[in-house]
């Protein structure tokens, strides 16, 4: 059997590059802020502490007079949880479909890819807006729609990765010995497409963060009075010149998180290419 690229090995190789280290630091900074922020927030995110857009506290008050810092420190958890959940759904479904299409081929391949083509014809944000506007801004629907909008893109990548593995000797040997196809896909093919899978995981997480924040900004994501970074931008944009912190803090956090995940993903892609050729880069 050809040695598979283990996720731990891929991460270790990627972590040797400067860009990946910087990305990990940026991601860790935002994640820790989101996780530990509620523990150190000076107020409850729904408490009124002053006049709207007032400056009596460190970062002032928002459009309703709530403490900006407290809402910021409480606002990252849900964004991260929903983004991770949507990424898991999208990558999970896309990987399964891509592997079936690449390994089984025939009509299954055609059906999966053509349905994917139809979905890919519409921008992700348009699909999300369509379904969320029809059914309402429900959390489960937000995760499902964002996740499934990733699936066709992931399926294409994983199909190509599977096609590069299915003709190898260890797959043929497993087929000759009568191993079940599901077992071949999970035990033989999946470990050998780890590199592209890890890269897609990082990319889709980046897109999930941006899309969910955008939907909240448009009023179709998380709803008031929930503390959410995308919602904070929407609620306070009208007074950007008067009280900028209510917009600047969540914008900077989302930007740092996005840049960090992009750097990590780029490092994983480079490491995957190097490991796939048997050399370290």
From TrEMBL:
Q: What is its main location?
A: membrane
Q: Name one GO biological process term.
A: transmembrane transport
Record InterPro entries: BP-dependent_transpt_permease (IPR050366), MetI-like (IPR000515), MetI-like_sf (IPR035906), OppC_N (IPR025966)
In this chain the ABC transmembrane type-1 domain maps to: 76-265
User: Which regions span the lipid bilayer?
Assistant: 22-41, 78-103, 115-134, 140-158, 205-222, 242-264
Q: How does it sit in the membrane?
A: Multi-pass membrane protein
ATP-binding recorded as keyword? no
Q: Which family does it belong to?
A: Belongs to the binding-protein-dependent transport system permease family.
What's the name of the protein? ABC transporter permease
Q: Which organism is it from?
A: Lentzea tibetensis
